[in-house]
Amino acid sequence: MTTPQRSKVKVVIVDDHKLFRKGILELVNDFEGFSVAWEAEHGKDFINKLEQDNLPEIILLDISMPVMDGYQTAEWLTKHYPDIKVLALSMHNDDNSILRMLKCGVNGYILKNADPSELEKALRTLETQGTYYSSKVAELAIKSLNNKKKEVRPDLSAREIEFLKLVCTELPYKSFAPLLNIHPRVVESTRETLFRKLEVESRVGLVIYAIRHGIYKIE
Fold first, then answer.
1. Are residues 33 and 60 in the same domain?
2. Where are the 4-aspartylphosphate modifications (predicted)?
């Protein structure tokens, strides 16, 4: 009896440059297990083409686009389709652009001048772990936040501190339960509590907080 083949992860490219889209399309289609379902020129075009019975799993999203840019599109997706993973793929490497996209809820951010191998790594990490941020982006974000005045650290329980330490590893959330000796639902509730308490909206926000406040130290 033959094992049925696993369906490919559906990717959508949202970028206003046609030649760039075509290049990324060929690249992604060459990655094993991934396939570009369709393309869009901007956020509004993406929304118009979106079909309920053919939703993508990952979106490669540019920032600077006409009609509806990457910030607006990311916010719309976070509100209406939070389960769709969004990877920002942009030339913008300034702190403000990166932090703004993170606040809009993207799951990952890499630069357009990244190597193809990093794009493939980003897609696979998004699929398995839910988030991916290049080292360059992480350095910029941490540098920006460290230059700002630190807020008073709220009271954190021992469990929340251990949770933050695990967040800084590459382990998926589902691995936290046995390590912390808690029920998987408690993992979800702890994460949501920390999002509210620390006023962050993503895993990278938790990581940056942990680093800034000495809960996790970069060796």
1. yes
2. 62
